[in-house]
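Dear support,

Our group has been running a series of protein-ligand predictions, and this particular one with 2-acetamido-2-deoxy-beta-D-glucopyranose is the one our PI (initials K.S.) wants archived with full inputs and outputs. We had some confusion internally about which version of the output was final, so please treat the block below as the authoritative record. The input we submitted was:
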Amino acid sequence: MQLLLFIGGLTLLSTTSFAAAAPKGYQTQGEDRNRWVNLTSLPTPRQEHTTVAVDNNTIAVLGGVERIGNDSVQLRVFTTNLVELYDIPSDTWRTAAPLPIKLNHPNSAVVNGRIYLLGGLVDTQEPPTAEADWIATGKSYVYDLDANAWAEVAPMPTGTERGSAVVGVHGEMIYVAGGMTVLNLVNQDASTTVTAFNTTSLQWQRVPSIAANIPEGRQHAAGAVVGDTLYVVGGRWYERTNVRDTVFSLNLLNQIAGWRTSPSHMPTARGGVTGGVVGSSFFAFGGECNPNTSNGIYPQAETYDFEPKEWKRLNDMPVPRHGTAAVAVGNRIYIPGGGLQQDGVPIERNGVVSYGQATAHFDAYEIEN
Ligand SMILES: *[C@@H]1O[C@H](CO)[C@@H](O)[C@H](O)[C@H]1NC(C)=O
Ligand SMILES: *[C@@H]1O[C@H](CO)[C@@H](O)[C@H](O)[C@H]1NC(C)=O
Ligand SMILES: *[C@@H]1O[C@H](CO)[C@@H](O)[C@H](O)[C@H]1NC(C)=O
Ligand SMILES: *[C@@H]1O[C@H](CO)[C@@H](O)[C@H](O)[C@H]1NC(C)=O
Ligand SMILES: *[C@@H]1O[C@H](CO)[C@@H](O)[C@H](O)[C@H]1NC(C)=O
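Confirmed final output from the archive:
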């Protein structure tokens, strides 16, 4: 039996979860008693967006890429400024004020009910080229839900502009770890940079130099702050195929101790992975560059218990995706949209070949109470 205790805004997962009864290692698939719940689809199919919870009732999906085409063929991809809000109690969507710029792979977080959007990737030209050709911008904004308005804040400092980073909130601070500055058909990089944004002063701050770089560059990774620790989970190093299974961590209360690499690796190395935290467990979903599936997508759902540091495999995603963004609220991890096939891998549907397919599918992984 898994027990969820709600104490003062913290969701604590009891240690007598299904993990205790399950065998050690990665064998819990099939014994996973959590469930997948289908929700009202996104109004607009997209991928390479980010998702944040504004409060306990409202989820926001920011930016990303849409694809012009239809269900059988996607003709081209373009970056969007679209912001859609999901109301959890009514299971409905509405459109909010758009981002001031079109942005994919945005870095975003919520502090005190405000959305902070801290850089991302933008098209290199307008109108954009047919295929992905993106570079980093440091432009940063804050969104107020009541006013439904965006305001510009200090940009990422010169040289630290990037998208596709891991973002974690700790008190008034937002930490941005790793990421990338370029993504096109022939070139991707992977940043080690760690920076911090102070939502009180609305300024960027340095972290101690020993904490200013993760152990190896990562983009398209998952991660979060759990308690006082920032985690960077999986992701890739430069090209798509260089998938990684590492868990990097930084104690935010003792940053001068620097980053650590956990001895416990993900069961499945992957990039384009997303995740969220419920209680004391991190849940990781999906990803791309799977050599074992025709669409190149990882269906894997896996969970990491921070204490003991141990990974377990859960039941696969019913609709495997990459380039999506998950957010945890209560005992659910919400996963709106994403890509149904590895970018650039040709898939034939109804006699038509597509090289990418964004979905409007929206579901949640619900952890058993
Ligand atoms: C969100 O829900 C948690 C758990 O029920 C609660 O403790 C917290 O106060 C809520 N937060 C807000 C902003 O309403
Ligand atoms: C959820 O939606 C997916 C995609 O449409 C579908 O394949 C699956 O059967 C649905 N699951 C349930 C429980 O309805
Ligand atoms: C989808 O778009 C392609 C390219 O324009 C076209 O050939 C095809 O007939 C369309 N399919 C449907 C179902 O509309
Ligand atoms: C954030 O900025 C405020 C206002 O300048 C300052 O008082 C506070 O110490 C800063 N927080 C951190 C964690 O540095
Ligand atoms: C692919 O399948 C093989 C054979 O089952 C397995 O050994 C390997 O770990 C799989 N690779 C990935 C990346 O899932």
